[in-house]
Amino acid sequence: MAKFVYGMQNVLSIKERLETQAKTEYAEANNRLSIEEDAMRRLMRRLDSYQQQAKVLEGEKLDIHKMRHCNDAIRIIKNQITQQAVRIRIAENNVDKAMQKLTEAVQDRKIHEKLKEKAFEQFKLELNAQEMKEIDETVSFNYNNRDEE
Fold it and tell me: What is the value of pTM for the model shown?
């Protein structure tokens, strides 16, 4: 029996590896986005705690040094939050790019799998046609030999 050999199997294998690589890159980008969002949440909690501390200091006996320190901390945290928001946008863009790359890799792999399936179907048709031809030849041979006997 004939064996099916797909001529472009190496291309399909490369497409599968590219898809795996794209999945890994997407997971890494998602992980990075999650890390950046966690950092933003921590900064927001610190900002809230400094703002609460500032309110408490306003209600207590005036301690200019503590109030100035608290206000400086709030200003620094707000600056860090702005920078973190930029990092989050960059991470989101990276996730979008990785998702687009993954989508393209999946589509390429599926295209090549369909081509392989079609080639296999063609192979089966050709094999079936060859078997039918052999059966016809056998039947013709047997029929012709029966007449000679």
Answer: 0.72
